[in-house]
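Re: Re: token formats

Sure, here are both.
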Amino acid sequence: MGSLIRNLLKKSREEATDKIKQIDLNDLITREVEFMDGDVNFKHGPQKVLNQAPSLPPISGVYTDFSQVVHNLIQNAMEAMQFSPTGKLTITTQHDRSSYYIRIEDTGGGIPPEIGEKIFDPFFTTKSDKEDRGDRSSAGTGLGLYTCREIIKSYDGTISVENRSGKGVVFTVSLPKQQLRRSFDKGR
């Protein structure tokens, strides 16, 4: 319980500012997973595997931006595996000479082909079906993936999805190493 409270306090302090600073993505991801462990369904749900690059250099950015993207992608992965008997969440960090990569992989049912092109559209959600059945905890606004994409675009990065129908989904965030600030901060 003490580590959860310490993690919550650190997360609150980090997210209290919108200043650009050096961020250890491995530490951010680890803390986000520890924070989400406060939810009993997450803690005792699917297996969680962190494959973090040991020599990942810090990235310049706003902590809240990356925390929000990681949180949204993990939350979506967990919801996708809600009915999966052998759920596994794998989060991988990598880098090469030009980019950072964050891969969030689940073993859920995948994305139905008829909605694959819509998942990044604002206000598009598949969660309203669950709300209609009375499961309000899973109701969504349809802004999670859209917001993730917009945040990553603001760093001149990309977010892609690999749909392995019936076997899960892999979201890959790619961020250039040379970015210094969010593009919407330019000109301030």
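Second one below.
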Amino acid sequence: MIDFLLAGGYTMVIVIVVGGVMLVAAARFAREAEPRRLALVKALTWALAFAVISGIAANLVATCHAVISDPEFSRAPLMPLLEGFAESITPAILGGAIASIAWILVGVGVRRMPDV
């Protein structure tokens, strides 16, 4: 698991922090379903999505920069690019997993909401 987090770089910290806050908000909504709590989860979902997108972009830039900066990688760039691209996607994997769990909790909360 540590290798997975290290592969994503510093952007994983942002995904973990935003995702953790979102999980707490979703759990609170599941426990006590109120529209304002749901609005917070929605906003945090957008924040998580943007953190994932910017994390992937930053990782792809770092990968490409590393490949063009190293003469050995530049001669045969396919393998370093593939490895770098695989590592670059780790924020999406973590963010998607966190969002899935959060929205399962939202589903529980929506089910528990009183009919209006």
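The CA atoms of residues 22 and 44 lie 6 Å apart. The helical segments are 2-8, 11-31, 35-69, 71-75, 78-88, 90-112.
- S.
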